[in-house]
């Protein structure tokens, strides 16, 4: 909705001189917002800066707006704000990844609708030059619509996978790479033909074809990607939504959209690249779709029944009391059970006993970037106790206990040893080097989101704690007390 309002700003030739300056100020606040959101300690300030920046951008557009009805815009803002406020109040932290994917889909669709509005009524957007849309504006328009459509359909599939409405396993189409490349090539060619054509009758078939193919390629790019790689997908779609906004900003001559879109697009791309490096993935293969997936998946093989040790909360409490150093590895199972508060309470009890406690966060733990960091921050875990993989992995050899709660793929040694595994090459925590491993999961029947068994379950030093994560941690706290 805000995107659409910004898109309605008058063309650059008729805007007052102070308007670009106001948009620049809002852009500075957006940069400060991104800077603040880079750390849990400054995330609240980052959110506030983002709110201020958006308020300045929207207010500036409304003040200079002389096309749409201000009452209708006010009603639209009120309705959208109420919906957003309600969702923010009710949404559970476990549902944040699919919520983010859903928001990305709305940004993508907004870009498509604004692009089509500009095409159907170019005079209202100041796009007419000698009675026609210039080829440059049509290229920008075509790219904005294409990227927006890809973002929309791709985000819908990501939402379906993350929310469990669609299988998280890769759906591999025969010849998918050829299909994807052919579709992308067709979009580029059709955009060029759209720019070269003149008159509504000549341009309409091309822009319709671009829109339809872009919706299709967004779907085709995401369905081959497995659930274990969804955090990168969410980041990548975030980048796409930014580039869609930037492309529309160029079309409409709106500085705020260009700045905001470029910031979102570049930050999302950089984060995707960093996460790909952390997972030993190729950034190009992410863009191509279907990375980390091949035609033979290890999840298709029947699981071998192997012996394992099962323990109780009292067993874990006894060993934790004796430990001098404990490293906790949280995962999505912790989020589902909402066990972060109980985990922080266990951490407090251990530290009172003189135990050193640290948290190890994998770059792709959870279902979106920073998912575990947000949950731990919600439970008031000190930021200086939380470490990324590369900063703490060497410490497992000195740890008395590796305490795994709801994580799986990020501690699976198959990523280092099994070339046929779908997670092969992904850096994982060296929990096998710890003296003792406690592994909380609901049952031995489940596997990680990648669908492969985990050798850590069966190691000599591993004790399986089969229970709901929150219930088990609460029982451990009682036993420690």
TrEMBL record:
Family in the record: Belongs to the PNT beta subunit family.
Function in brief: The transhydrogenation between NADH and NADP is coupled to respiration and ATP hydrolysis and functions as a proton pump across the membrane.
Protein name: NAD(P) transhydrogenase subunit beta
Family annotation (InterPro entries): NADH_DH_b, PNTB-like
EC category: translocase
Domain NADP transhydrogenase beta-like: 21-478
Annotated transmembrane regions: 22-38, 73-92, 99-119, 139-158, 178-197, 203-223, 256-276
The EC number(s) this enzyme carries: 7.1.1.1
Taxonomic lineage of the native organism: Bacteria, Pseudomonadati, Pseudomonadota, Alphaproteobacteria, Sphingomonadales
Record keywords, A-Z: Cell inner membrane, Cell membrane, Membrane, NAD, NADP, Translocase, Transmembrane, Transmembrane helix
Pfam families referenced in this protein's UniProt entry, alphabetically: PNTB
Catalytic activity, as annotated: NAD(+) + NADPH + H(+)(in) = NADH + NADP(+) + H(+)(out)
């Amino acid at each position: 909705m805000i995107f659409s309002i910004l898109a309605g700003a008058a063309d650059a030739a008729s805007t007052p001189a102070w308007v670009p300056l106001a948009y620049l100020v809002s852009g500075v606040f957006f940069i400060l917002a991104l800077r603040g959101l880079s750390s849990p300690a400054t995330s609240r300030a980052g959110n506030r800066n983002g709110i201020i920046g958006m308020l300045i951008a929207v207010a500036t557009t409304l003040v200079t707006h002389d096309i749409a009805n201000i009452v209708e815009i006010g009603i639209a803002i009120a309705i959208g704000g109420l919906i957003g406020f309600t969702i923010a109040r009710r949404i559970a932290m476990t549902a944040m990844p699919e919520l983010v994917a859903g928001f990305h889909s709305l940004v993508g669709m907004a870009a498509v609708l604004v692009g089509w509005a500009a095409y159907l009524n170019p005079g209202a957007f100041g796009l007419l030059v000698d009675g026609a849309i210039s080829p440059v504006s049509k290229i920008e328009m075509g790219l904005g619509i294409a990227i927006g459509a890809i973002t929309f359909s791709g985000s819908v599939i990501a939402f379906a996978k993350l929310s469990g409405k669609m299988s998280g396993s890769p759906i591999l189409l025969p010849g998918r790479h050829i299909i994807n490349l052919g579709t992308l090539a067709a979009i580029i060619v059709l955009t060029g033909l759209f720019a070269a054509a003149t008159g509504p009758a000549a341009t309409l078939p091309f822009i319709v074809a671009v829109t339809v193919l872009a919706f299709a390629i967004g779907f085709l790019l995401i369905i081959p990607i497995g659930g274990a790689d969804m955090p990168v997908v969410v980041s990548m779609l975030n980048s796409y939504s930014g580039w869609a906004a930037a492309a529309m900003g160029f079309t409409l001559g709106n500085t705020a959209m260009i700045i905001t879109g470029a910031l979102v697009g570049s930050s999302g791309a950089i984060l995707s690249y960093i996460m790909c490096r952390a997972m030993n993935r190729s950034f190009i293969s992410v863009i191509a779709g279907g990375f980390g997936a091949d035609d033979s998946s290890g999840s298709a093989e029947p699981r071998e029944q192997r012996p394992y040790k099962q323990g109780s909360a009292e067993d874990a409490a006894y060993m934790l009391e004796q430990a001098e150093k404990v490293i906790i590895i949280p995962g999505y199972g912790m989020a589902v059970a909402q066990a972060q508060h109980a985990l922080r309470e266990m951490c407090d009890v251990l530290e009172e006993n003189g135990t050193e406690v640290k948290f190890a966060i994998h770059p792709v733990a959870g279902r979106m970037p920073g998912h575990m960091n947000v949950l731990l921050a919600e439970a008031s875990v000190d930021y200086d106790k939380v470490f990324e993989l590369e900063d703490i992995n060497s410490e497992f050899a000195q740890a008395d206990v590796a305490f795994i709660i709801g994580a799986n793929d990020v501690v699976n040694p198959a990523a280092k040893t099994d070339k046929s595994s779908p997670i092969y090459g992904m850096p994982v925590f060296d929990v096998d080097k710890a003296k003792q491993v406690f592994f909380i999961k609901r049952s031995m029947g489940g596997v990680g989101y990648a669908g492969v068994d985990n050798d850590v379950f069966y190691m000599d030093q591993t004790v399986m704690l089969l229970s709901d994560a929150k219930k088990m941690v609460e029982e451990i706290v009682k036993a420690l007390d």
